[in-house]
Amino acid sequence: MDEGTICLKEALEYGINRLSEAKISEAELDAWYLLSHVTKIDRGTYFAEIKRPLTKEQEKCYLELIGKRADRIPLQHLTGEQEFMGLTFQVNEHVLVPRQDTEILVEEALKTVCPGMRVLDMCTGSGCILLSLLWYANKKNGLVCGKINEELWKRFAVTGIGVDISEDALNVAEKNRKAVLGALASAAIFQESDLFAQIEGRFDMIVSNPPYIRTAVIATLEEEVRCHDPLLALDGKEDGLYFYERIIEESPAFLKQGGRLLFEIGHDQAEAVSELMKRRGFEQIRVKKDLAGLDRVLSGVYNG
User: Fold this and answer.
1) What phi and psi, each to the nearest 5 degrees, are found at residue 4?
2) Residue-level pLDDT, tens digit, the chain, 304 residues
3) What is the largest distance, in Å, between two alpha-carbon atoms of the chain?
4) Which of 299, 76, 49 is nearest to 172 (CA)?
5) Is 124 in contact with 171 (CB distance < 8 Å)?
6) Which H or E run contains 137?
7) Which of 296, 280, 242, 252 lies closest to 102 in space, CA to CA?
């Protein structure tokens, strides 16, 4: 399409056609998200002003973004954000894009989080797991609305540390800490560490979505993941169990009596990871399935 004055309807139609030709699976949805991102309009405004022309700057930006999406750059890298647990997180090429399946890990964690708990998020990436967990846990405790009562905060706040080996990922997580938690930002700390190497103290709960893709499988993943997600966040080594083994082996030294360990797992890893947890002394091991009926979250309790 030659650059000129086009209206909203023409821009969206072009975007859908261009992405369909590039065999983008959700061409219509992605074209809409990019148009909304550039023009800052919602669906209602679009239909009410369907013939409204884009500005030259909007048109140029939209056509560039459609071209990049056609080249398989992830939509979220183009918009710079992704919704997770109803909250908006900043993302880029240094972190995994938060996925809906991972929300199940947060939902399971929230079932047993109590006031005053301390949480450790291992391989935190964008921080979406820890931050959404802290947001909803403290909201449930009545600590989100209005001015924070320092005495109540000390007694009841759920707090946590997010750990990652990637400094670039932690820079993203830090931005999300301030943007997502706002006045509650002090509830979270992000720290660079190779798993537990730089961690001190004990926690009521450890949550983790570690790298769990088998090395040989990575080359078969869709291009958006294979070429644009950070390899550090994907590669679970030869059998995909490397980080589960390390975290399970070391976590008892960092869990309080009766502390919980929760993982996101691959659909075919429940049996192997469960066995690792049993050998290390974890009890009450449970598997939670995702909406597709696949094993997604594994949890266990450590009583020492």
Assistant:
1) -170, -165
2) 555 689 999 999 999 999 999 999 999 999 999 999 999 999 999 999 999 999 999 999 999 999 999 999 999 999 999 999 999 999 999 999 999 999 999 999 999 999 999 999 999 999 999 999 999 999 887 776 556 667 777 778 999 999 999 999 999 999 999 999 988 899 999 999 999 999 999 999 999 999 999 999 999 988 888 888 888 899 899 999 999 999 999 999 999 999 999 999 999 999 999 999 999 999 999 999 999 999 999 999 999 8
3) 69
4) 76
5) no
6) helix 128-140
7) 296
**Phi-psi bin for 238: left (phi > 0), alpha (psi -120 to 50), beta?**
alpha
For residue 159, what are its two tokens?
């707090």
The DSSP element (H or E) to which 217 belongs, if any, is helix 215-218
Predicted TM-score (pTM) of the model is: 0.92
Write phi, then psi, for 26 (nearest 5 degrees): -115, 60
Q: Length of the chain, please? A: 304
β-bridge mates for residue 53, sequence order = 7
Query: Which amino acid, one-letter code, is at 152?
Result: L
- Could you tell me the CA-to-CA distances from 252 to 90, 124, 180, 201, 256 in Å, in that order? 32, 19, 30, 11, 8
183 and 150 Cβ atoms separated by less than 8 Å: no
* Six-digit token string for 273: 């990871």
- In one-letter notation, the amino acid at residue 150 is E
Token code pair at residue 146: 């209005």
Specify whether the CB–CB gap between 236 and 211 falls below 8 A.
yes
Distance CA 96, CA 105 (A): 15
Which segments of 48-164 are extended strands (E)? Answer: 81-84, 87-90, 118-122, 159-164
Structure tokens given for 4: 């000129």
For the record, the structure tokens of 28 come out as: 């219509």
Query: Which token pair is 50?
Result: 């369907």
Give the integer Cα–Cα distance in Å for 64 and 47: 24
Sign of CA dihedral 300, 110, 175, 200: negative
